[in-house]
Specification:
- The complex is a heterodimer of chains A (about 325) and B (about 150).
- Chain A is mainly alpha-helical and about 325 residues long.
- Chain A contains 17 helices and 2 strands.
- Helices cover about 75% and strands about 0% of the residues of chain A.
- In chain A, strands 1-2 form a two-stranded antiparallel sheet.
- The mean pLDDT of chain A is about 95.
- Chain B is an alpha+beta fold and about 150 residues long.
- The N and C termini of chain B lie far apart (about 75 Å).
- The chains are: A mainly alpha (about 325), B alpha+beta (about 150).
- At the A-B interface, helix 1, helix 3, helix 4, helix 7 and helix 8 of A face helix 1, strand 1 and helix 4 of B.
C-alpha cells in the first residue's frame, strides 16, 4: 500500500518542469488574476463589518483587531507586499519564502473579497496550487536562487535535475480537479436528476447569465434547444467522468484538452470565467502527460522545426 | 518512508480531506474558502418559457438628482444586491427598500428620499427575444428625524 502510494506521488521528475509551472502560475496570478485594490478599499469603506467572514479572515480577526488589519491603509500595504513577493517568486529570488508570502497574500485577498456574502469557485484550486508550489522545489531551476548558488560554487540540491518531490503538486491538482468536477456533476444529478439534462435547464442558465453579462454566444445557445440539450450532456459527461483521467492516465490529455475547451465554452455561453482552471489544465497537459502524448508532442515539434526553413524561404 | 515524503503525504491527505469539511459541516459551508462545496447551477428548469428578468434601482436624492444603485456604490457584490434588495423589492417588500436607503444615506449630505425599481422580463421566442417592461415601483423613505 505504502509502496503504491510512494510510486504514485513520488516518482522522480525534472525540477525544471516545476520551475516552469512556478513561472506560469505566478505570472498568471500577478498579471491576469491579481486583485483590484480599489475594490478591496471600497469594501472596507462601505462595510463596517463582514457579512459572512471566511475562515482566514476570522482567524486574522481573532489575533488582531479589525482596526489594525482591515483598514484601507493596512490592506494597501498588504497589497504591495504581496505584489513584491509575487515578483520575487516569479524570478525565483528567495523562492520558497517569496512564494509562501505571495500565496498567503493571495489567499488573504480572496478570503477578504468573499467575506461580504458572495463567493465564487474560480480561484480555489489555483490558490491551493500556489501554496503547493511554495512547499516544493519549484525554485531549484530557472531562478535567481539557482544562479546565485552556482556563482557561490554551492552544489545543486538535485544534481541530476530530477527530484522525487517535483511532481506531487501537479498530481494533487489533478486529484483536486477530479474531485471538484465530480462534485459539481453529481450535485446536479442528485439535486435535479435527469431533468438537468432536458436542455431547458441549460437554456435558462445560459439566458439569465449571458443576457445580463452581454455574451452573445450564450444568448444564441439559449435560443437553440438542440444545442443546449447537446451541451447539457457534454457538461455532465465531462464533470462526472473527469476522474477517469486519474484511473486511466493514457486518457488524461484528452480530458485536459477537453477541459480547456469546456471552460472556453462556459465562458462564451455565460461568462463563467474559470481562467485559473484553464491555466492549471494547460500545465497538466504539458507536464503530467503520459509518454504517448509527450512522444506525439515531440514528433509534432520536430516536424514543425524541419518544415520551418522551407516555409520561411517560400 | 523518508521524512520529507511523510510530510508531503500529510499535506496531500490534509488538502484532500479538508474538501470534505464543507460537505459534512453544513453551517460553515460557505466560509471555508478555499475548501468549498462545488455544487454549482444544480437547479433545473421544467420545459417552458426561457426567461430572464432584468432589474435596476434608481435612487432619487432630496435635491432631485437620480443615480442608479450599483454594487460599487453599495460596497456589495451584484449577488448580494440581488438577494438583499432587488428581489425583495420586486415582491413589494418596503422594508428592504428602507434598509437600502438607510445604507445609502450613511455619510450623505444630499439624502436619498426615494428608490424606483425598474424591471423588464425578456423571453426567448421563435421570432426573437421579446421584452416586456413592468410598471416601475417607487419606494419613499421615512422623513429624516431632524425635520
Amino acid at each position: 500500500m505504502i509502496e503504491r502510494w510512494e510510486a504514485y506521488w513520488f516518482p522522480t521528475a525534472p525540477t525544471r518542469n516545476l520551475a516552469i509551472c512556478r513561472i506560469v502560475a505566478v505570472a498568471a496570478q500577478l498579471f491576469l488574476f491579481y486583485p483590484s485594490l480599489e475594490e478591496h478599499v471600497n469594501l472596507l469603506r462601505k462595510n463596517s463589518e463582514f457579512i459572512e467572514p471566511q475562515i482566514m479572515v476570522r482567524a486574522i480577526s481573532a489575533l488582531l483587531p479589525r482596526e489594525v488589519v482591515f483598514t484601507p491603509s493596512a490592506v494597501t500595504a498588504l497589497y504591495w507586499i504581496t505584489a513584491i513577493a509575487g515578483a520575487a517568486a516569479l524570478i525565483g529570488l528567495f523562492t520558497r519564502i517569496s512564494l509562501l508570502l505571495f500565496a498567503l497574500g493571495t489567499w488573504f485577498f480572496v478570503s477578504h473579497l468573499f467575506s461580504y456574502g458572495d463567493r465564487h469557485h474560480t480561484e480555489a484550486v489555483f490558490c491551493i496550487f500556489l501554496m503547493l508550489l511554495a512547499l516544493s522545489p519549484s525554485g531549484e531551476e530557472l531562478s535567481v536562487d539557482a544562479v546565485l548558488r552556482r556563482r557561490r560554487g554551492k552544489p545543486a540540491r538535485y544534481p541530476s535535475g530530477n527530484a522525487d518531490t517535483a511532481i506531487w503538486p501537479l498530481k494533487l491538482v489533478h486529484v483536486l480537479l477530479a474531485l471538484t468536477y465530480f462534485s459539481a456533476g453529481m450535485s446536479k444529478l442528485i439535486a435535479s436528476g435527469p431533468r438537468w439534462l432536458n436542455g431547458y435547464t441549460l437554456q435558462n442558465h445560459a439566458f439569465q447569465d449571458a443576457f445580463n453579462r452581454g455574451f452573445p454566444v450564450g444568448i444564441w445557445v439559449a435560443q437553440h434547444h438542440g444545442v443546449a440539450l447537446f451541451l447539457s450532456y457534454v457538461t455532465i459527461f465531462y464533470e462526472v467522468f473527469f476522474f477517469l483521467s486519474l484511473l486511466f492516465p493514457r486518457t488524461a490529455p484528452l480530458f485536459f484538452l477537453g477541459g480547456i475547451g469546456f471552460h472556453i465554452g462556459l465562458y462564451l455561453t455565460g461568462g463563467y470565467d474559470f481562467f485559473q482552471h484553464m491555466v492549471l489544465l494547460a500545465l497538466l497537459l504539458v507536464f503530467l502527460a503520459p509518454p504517448w502524448w509527450r512522444a506525439w508532442l515531440n514528433r509534432s515539434w520536430a516536424v514543425f522545426r524541419s518544415r520551418e526553413p522551407a516555409e520561411v524561404r517560400s | 518512508m523518508p521524512r520529507h515524503r511523510v510530510l508531503i503525504s500529510t499535506v496531500i491527505v490534509l488538502v484532500i480531506g479538508l474538501h470534505a469539511v464543507p460537505v459534512l459541516y453544513r453551517s460553515e459551508r460557505g466560509t471555508l474558502w478555499p475548501f468549498m462545496q462545488w455544487a454549482m447551477y444544480k437547479g433545473s428548469s421544467p420545459p417552458g418559457p426561457i426567461q430572464t428578468r432584468v432589474r435596476r434601482i434608481i435612487a432619487t436624492t432630496a435635491q432631485g438628482h437620480e443615480q442608479e444603485v450599483t454594487p460599487a456604490w453599495l460596497g456589495l457584490s451584484i449577488t448580494v444586491l440581488e438577494s438583499w434588495y432587488l428581489r425583495p423589492m420586486g415582491t413589494g417588500d418596503s422594508t428592504a427598500a428602507q434598509r437600502l436607503m438607510d445604507r445609502l444615506n450613511r455619510d450623505r449630505n444630499d439624502p436619498i428620499v426615494a428608490l424606483r425599481l425598474e424591471s423588464a422580463l425578456y423571453t426567448v421566442t421563435d421570432s426573437g427575444i421579446v421584452e416586456r417592461d413592468n410598471p416601475p415601483v417607487v419606494y419613499h423613505g421615512h422623513e429624516p428625524e431632524s425635520r
